[in-house]
Amino acid sequence: MTRSTGTRWLAFGLLAPGLLLGGACTPKSTTSSPAPSPSTTTQAAAPTSSVADASVAAKAVYEEFWQLASTIDKRPESEWRPNLSKVATDPQLTRSVQGLGLLREQSIALYGTPTARITSVDVVGSRATVQDCQDGSKAGQADAKTGKPKTVGVERNPITATLLRDGEGRWRVSDVVFGGGACR
User: Fold this and answer.
1) How many Å is the maximal CA-CA distance in the chain?
2) Which residue in 4, 109, 114, 125 could disulfide with 136, CB within 3.0 to 4.6 Å?
3) How many whole angstroms separate alpha carbon 20 and alpha carbon 3?
4) Is-contact 38 132, C-beta < 8 A?
């Protein structure tokens, strides 16, 4: 198995390292997260009351993103965006959907589920930054017809994700960057 797609696979940002959508993720050196846009919507859910609560909520959405990302390719294409939009927003949402489409065109399926090993969550206002040393060693890309693995993720993959909180208080992954190198 090769690791060639292991550091760029997450077009999905959803998809596990090397699993998801190779080449559709943002390289570390060019990452720029969009500024959250102000919302005039009345909040349907109570906003997170403290930084600690916000950190816990952002972490939960980040982990849910990876769980969904590792299985979404099994669903009809028409369900990808609506389901992913529950845990992701643009630009990562579009990257993930496009990456899934590329994988499907190439008859590649995802297998396994990466394990988040979050090392920190930093919340400032409506933006959270998650540092992860993700374990993707039991996940990767496989031939969609035979199920035979083509790639396997790495055990210690450094990831930085940006999450944004909308006007209703919901966190969503907006950017996933695979840093390469070693976990901090």
Assistant:
1) 50
2) 114
3) 13
4) no
E strand or H helix at 172, and its extent? strand 171-178
Per-residue pLDDT reduced to its tens digit, 164-181: 999 999 999 999 999 877
| pTM: predicted TM-score of the whole model, two decimal places | 0.76
pLDDT digits (tens, 9 = 90+) for 5-63: 332 333 343 344 343 443 333 334 333 333 333 332 223 334 446 888 999 999 999 99
Cβ atoms of residues 59 and 66 within 8 Å: no
C-alpha distances in Å from residue 171, one per residue of 91, 92, 117, 166:
14, 13, 19, 7
DSSP H helical ranges for the chain:
51-69, 77-84, 92-105
**Surface-to-core class of residue 113, CB atoms within 10 Å of its CB (0-12 exposed, 13-18 middle, 19+ buried):** middle
Q: Are 2 and 151 in contact (CB under 8 A)?
A: yes
What distance in Å separates the CA atoms of residue 8 and residue 17, rounded to the nearest whole number? 7
